[in-house]
Amino acid sequence: MPTNIMADKRVFRGSTNAAMVIPAGTYPDQLFEANKRKFDPKKLEQQRAQAAEEFFTRDVKTPEAPAGKQNIDIQTDQFVAELTDKAPVYEISCQTEFKIVENPVFYRMPAIIGVSKKTLVEDNEIFLFEDEVQPLLSVLIGKTLEVARMEVLQEEELAEMDRQQKMYA
After folding, report:
1. Cα gap 52→77, rounded to integer Å
2. Is 31:22 a contact under the CB 8 Å cutoff?
3. Residue 30: what pLDDT?
4. 123, 129 in Cβ contact below 8 A?
5. pLDDT class for 154, splitting at 50, 70, 90?
6. Rounded to whole angstroms, how far apart are CA atoms 26 and 142?
7. Given CA atoms 135, 137, 140, 146 in this order, what sign does their dihedral have?
8. Residue 87, exposed/middle/buried by CB under 10 A (0-12, 13-18, 19+)?
9. How far apart are the first and last CA of the chain?
10. Whole-angstrom Cα distance, residue 126 to residue 121?
């Protein structure tokens, strides 16, 4: 028996772009704490500053310039950024149930519970044409004739205005 997938509790409805998928068996608080420890911006900034300090305070002599050229001091960026082509990769898994419980299929008609009712309708009881349609038709025809008369009067008025304009011209 087909079921509506939108009513299934196991189906996630919504955008998966903003969804945080957490593997089964893990605790979200521990995940976030681990990420905070791993990607602490203050700690990373301190490490970069320390690396830059070591880089700029080392005692490496600049080689002598070749003939016809000279060495000059220039301002460079103090912090070095690592450039990588690889995007961060995360391993995420999902556990699926092996058995899906389905609703039972009924192979017989269910027993009728309660009292059955019926209505007997004689001929010409449901719809009497003369009594019910004649007022509707008279209103429709009257409105149609009224609109047509208004259109004819508007055309005559426009023709009269054109005639008067030609007379004044």
Report:
1. 10
2. yes
3. 65
4. no
5. very high
6. 77
7. negative
8. exposed
9. 83
10. 7
Residue 54 · residue 79 · CB < 8 Å: no
Report DSSP letters for the chain, one per residue.
----GGG-TTS--S-SSS-----TT--HHHHHHHHHHHT-HHHHHHHHHHHHHHHHHS--PPPPPPTT---------SS-----SPPP---------S----PPPP-SPPPP-S--------TTSS--HHHHHHHHHHHHHHHHHHHHHHHHHHHHHHHHHHHHHHHH-
Measured distance CA(82)–CA(88) in Å, rounded: 14
pLDDT of residue 40: 73
CA separation, residue 116 to residues 31, 57, 108, 119, 122 (Å): 62, 99, 19, 11, 20
Q: Which long-range contacts (CB under 8 A, 24 or more apart) does 96-99 make?
A: 97/10
Look up the pTM and report it: 0.26
pLDDT tens track for 112-142: 888 888 877 777 677 677 777 888 889 999 9
